[in-house]
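Researcher: We plan to redesign the surface later, but first we want a full-length starting point. Tokens attached.
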């Protein structure tokens, strides 16, 4: 498996510094938070996109994916949501990123209504994604926290360009075992976001291995099934300003993941 980290952990950091951290600490890729607060977002000009792609290539670091904020199960008209997804997919194409992350965002809607809306929009987005050579991944999050929730959407979509992003915190909070999540998502799995927290009531980010999330079990399940994709550390510094700075944790985090991979092998 290859290792990445998300720029959610280094809010607003210039791309050159992000890439320096990746190379210094042995990460193969970076997940880019695609938000106007960040250096890389859908508002970039064609020249700025080309420059960003060239920086990654020069550093020998891969753009794992774009973490967007489109909510495909949200109430309202389809077109604004689809336009947001298309903009992310175009940016991913220009940067050479294989994946775009979207959220469910079903809110208080009934599961049936949220599922139907999400499947309809995701199916349309997947057709567009196929044309630009990118996969759009629905994250286990908010209204669709578990693998069982996400597969209710992906099953009806049935398109290879629509997949799943497994956030290990949300499936754990949803009461799902790693083996259950993998069984649900395996045919559709794009990559896995790892992190650690103190408890269900305290989700502030911790160094990997310092909390309660079943990271060893997740890696063991993936290894046992021969899955060789990406593990991406999503350290939510942007939402928890008092959390320790990520740069000082990256080396130990990579070593922790390497130990888990070695143990599972």
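Model: Full-length starting sequence:
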């Amino acid at each position: 498996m290859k290792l990445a980290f998300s720029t959610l952990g280094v809010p607003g950091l210039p791309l050159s510094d992000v890439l320096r951290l990746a190379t210094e600490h042995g990460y193969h890729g970076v997940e880019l938070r695609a938000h106007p607060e960040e250096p890389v977002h859908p508002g970039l000009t064609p020249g700025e996109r080309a420059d960003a792609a060239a920086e990654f290539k020069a550093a020998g670091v891969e753009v794992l994916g774009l973490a967007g904020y489109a909510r495909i199960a949200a109430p309202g008209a389809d077109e604004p949501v689809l336009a947001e997804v298309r903009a992310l997919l175009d940016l991913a194409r220009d940067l050479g990123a294989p994946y775009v992350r979207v959220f469910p965002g079903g809110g208080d809607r009934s599961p049936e209504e949220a599922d139907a809306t999400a499947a309809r929009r995701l199916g349309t987005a997947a057709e567009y994604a196929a044309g630009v050579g990118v996969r759009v991944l629905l994250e286990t999050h908010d209204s669709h926290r578990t693998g069982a929730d996400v597969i209710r959407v992906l099953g009806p979509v049935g398109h290879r360009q629509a997949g799943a992003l497994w956030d290990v915190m949300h499936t754990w909070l949803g009461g799902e075992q790693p083996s259950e999540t993998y069984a649900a998502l395996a045919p559709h799995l794009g990559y896995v976001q790892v992190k650690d927290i103190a408890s269900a009531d305290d989700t502030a980010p911790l160094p990997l291995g310092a909390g309660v999330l079943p990271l060893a079990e997740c890696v063991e399940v993936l290894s046992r099934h021969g899955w060789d994709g990406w593990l991406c550390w999503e350290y939510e510094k942007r939402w928890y300003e008092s959390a320790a700075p990520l740069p000082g944790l990256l080396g130990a985090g990579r070593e922790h993941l390497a130990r888990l991979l070695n143990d599972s092998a």
